[in-house]
Design a protein that fits this description.
With 318 residues, the protein is mainly α. It is built from 16 helices and no strands. Helix 1 packs antiparallel against helix 15 and helix 7 packs across helix 10. The longest helix has 36 residues.
Length: 318
């Protein structure tokens, strides 16, 4: 058990290092740099090459790639990502509030979507091939198939235009308190919740159907154990364990993939900050956001593996 935990933890750390290197190399192929974006084409054409080279040297844009890679890896290990190229602002200060806002949005969705998905998946599996199961399955397929920007647009048309109950876009600022931000983002939360419930319900329904059809459950029924005890105490744990990895990866993808919803509703999260950083060629900010997104995926995947090790004795024996 301890050996498996150490192996998986070490593999996750190695994965993070390789991802950090890949992120650095990926940002290297971005055309231009922060100085090229800050200057107009006329200014660049009229500026002597020596002066342009001097400005790039002062900003540190002409340093060798291996030197910048080493600085990036050391900074990531110390959680110190330096300063932006043009404004010299601390990168951590720039991404702090957008990071908080994205985590707040994702956490709210998870708190709402996971219990509802669990109830719908169990209800559909317990009424397998009955109207309830058909209704839940069809709704899940539709909710998962429709892109989030379409769902968000429909919600805006219904509840911000036809019936002006909620604001179409978020007017709260980046540094507003969490409750103020959530109060201004009900449509953004609903958009993500719909897709999340659809995906998670399908996973849990399949797992519950397989668990309820096993010989072990049939023997429990023959012993006279109440059906609710069989479902909650025996079938549900057996259905959740194989789904943990998929659920963890989906939660990680949701945390790191809110760009579309944030742009649709002007939500002040990491998505908007990433777009601004790419536009301004602020490579340090892009690297931090990309590394955080990758770290969330790796950490949640590791957490799911450790939970499976703790809950499933067959995995521990293997």
């Amino acid at each position: 058990m301890i050996g498996a935990i150490l192996r998986r933890t070490g593999l996750s750390l190695l994965t993070l290092v390789l991802l950090a290197i890949y992120i650095f190399l990926a940002t290297e192929v971005l055309p231009g740099d922060a100085l090229d974006v800050s200057l107009s084409a006329d200014e660049i054409s009229q500026m002597p090459p020596a002066q342009l080279a001097k400005m790039k040297h002062e900003l540190g844009l002409d340093r060798p790639a291996y030197e910048r890679l080493g600085e990036f890896l050391l900074g990531a290990a110390r959680l110190d990502f330096g300063r932006t190229v043009m404004t010299k602002a601390r990168v951590v200060d720039i991404v702090a509030y957008p990071l908080r806002n994205s985590l707040l949005l994702a956490g709210t969705v998870i708190v709402i979507a996971f219990p509802l998905s669990l109830m719908l998946g169990v209800a559909a599996a317990c009424r397998y091939r009955r109207p309830v199961d058909t209704l839940v399955s069809v709704g899940a397929i539709i909710g998962y198939s429709v892109p989030e920007f379409v769902t968000g647009t429909v919600l805006v048309m219904l509840f911000a235009v036809a019936w002006p109950l909620f604001p179409a876009t978020i007017t709260a600022s980046t540094s507003d308190p969490a409750l103020v931000l959530l109060a201004a983002a009900p449509l953004a939360v609903a958009t993500i919740v719909i897709g999340s419930i659809a995906y998670l319900t399908r996973i849990l329904r399949v797992g519950m159907v397989e668990a309820l059809s096993t010989d072990f459950v049939e023997r429990l029924r023959l012993t006279g154990i109440p059906e609710w005890r069989i479902v909650l105490l025996h079938a549900l744990p057996a259905a959740v364990i194989p789904s943990l990895t998929a659920m963890a990866l989906y939660a990680a993808a949701m945390v790191s993939g809110l760009v579309v919803v944030e742009l649709v509703f002007a939500y002040p999260g990491l998505g908007q900050e990433l777009v601004r950083a790419v536009t301004r060629r602020e490579v340090h900010v892009v690297q931090v956001i990309a590394l955080f997104s990758a770290s969330v995926v790796v950490v949640l995947n590791l957490a799911a593996d450790l939970m499976i090790l703790a809950l499933d004795p067959r995995t521990r024996r293997r």
